Amino acid sequence: MIVLGVETSCDETAVAVVKDGREILSNVVFSQIKYHQDYGGVVPEVASRHHLRKIIPVFERALAEAKINPAEIDLVAVTAKPGLIGSLFVGINAAKAFALAHDLEYMEVNHIEGHIYANYIEKDFYFPILALVVSGGHTELILMRDHYQFEVLGETLDDAVGECYDKVGRVMGLDYPAGALVDELAQRGKPAYKLPLIYLDKDSYDFSFSGLKSAVINLLNTAKMKNEEVNLADLARSFQDSAVKVLTDKTIRAAKEHNARQIIVAGGVAANRGLREALQAEVKKLDGVALSFPSLKYCTDNAAMIAVAAYFKHRTENKRS
Asked: Is pLDDT above 80 for 122?
């Protein structure tokens, strides 16, 4: 089964062609980072404009790299939510038009489900699975007992962890996108600053990062007023240790409670070195639990993950019918 996937939920214009849920025939991504750097974040209208400009060339390149013609495609899938409304509309309308023009089946996919299925591209799934979704817009713990069965155990009550990384990086004076630069700085620092560990209720799997973000901002503002120097590498390490410890502790506790055979990490923050190292160290202590991270190219937004998710969504829906 050949699926063409389309992803335009934020600031990447992406089209991919995937065979049988795993074989990547093409995966084309146009990044808009340079267009948003001056603003320190994604500007929705600017993002929509560049999607409109690039969607057709990205479609054409993905088909050319896959070396297929539209008649060989079985399903057209597109991210329908969540995301920036204007950006989503570009991808949805392009995918619908392509499907209608070539009389192909059309399917809409949830962006978060796509991030989860990015893990399947290179590794098998072993159910039950606990998925930690960490990105600029989302922080969730999701239990999967089978393909396309999702139970949300917990989610962020305020900032997503990726958003928190970006905002902390911005107040530290780092360039956009700042989250990856905070991770780089943290590798050179020591946990010299005391920052809060926010667990909420002891049995909760929900997250909260706004207090941690505020603590960093307050620390920097206080140092500035007192004319004291802040070691940014040490601050980055202290911030990262606090964020990662809460993520890791809740993930491991949920995995134990639900007898997970596999923990998978999904979303842009899955590329974070500190998170990878912490989870690898803790999962080694568990008996018979596998740990999966996507390759770095599949951590950030891409259309291959949407095509893979659509393959399993289509297969699951056909089984039920």
From this structure: yes
Q: Where are the alpha helices (DSSP H) in the chain?
A: 33-36, 44-66, 85-101, 111-117, 161-171, 178-186, 210-225, 232-257, 273-283, 296-299, 304-320
User: What domains are defined for the chain?
Assistant: 2-117+299-320 (3.30.420.40), 124-293 (3.30.420.40)
Please state, in angstroms and rounded to a whole number, the distance separating the CA atoms of residues 192 and 178.
Answer: 21
Question: What is the H or E stretch that residue 139 is in?
Answer: strand 139-144
CA distances from 243 to 206, 212, 246 (A): 13, 8, 6
- Residue 97, both tokens: 């038009």
Residue 214 CA from chain centroid, whole number: 23
First to last CA, the chain: 18
Which single residue is written with the structure tokens 């390490």?
Answer: 237
Of all residues in the chain, the percent with pLDDT exceeding 90 is: 93
pLDDT at 219 over 80: yes
Spatial CA neighbour of 55 closest among 99, 13, 113: 13
**Alpha carbons 105 and 89: distance in angstroms, whole number:** 18
The alpha carbon dihedral of 20, 313, 248, 257 has a sign of negative
Place of tokens 């267009």: 35
Could you give the CA distance from residue 76 to residue 189 in angstroms, rounded to a whole number? 46
Query: CB atoms < 10 A from the CB of 79, how many?
Result: 31
What angle, 0 to 180 degrees and rounded to 10, lies between the N-to-C axes of helices 232-257 and 210-225? 160
pLDDT of residue 165: 96
Q: Give the C-alpha distances (Å, rounded to integers) separating 136 from 185, 245, 254, 255, 275.
A: 19, 18, 22, 23, 15
CA atoms lying within 13 Å on the CB side of residue 281: 10
d(CA 231, CA 248): 26
Taking residues 103-115, report their average pLDDT.
97
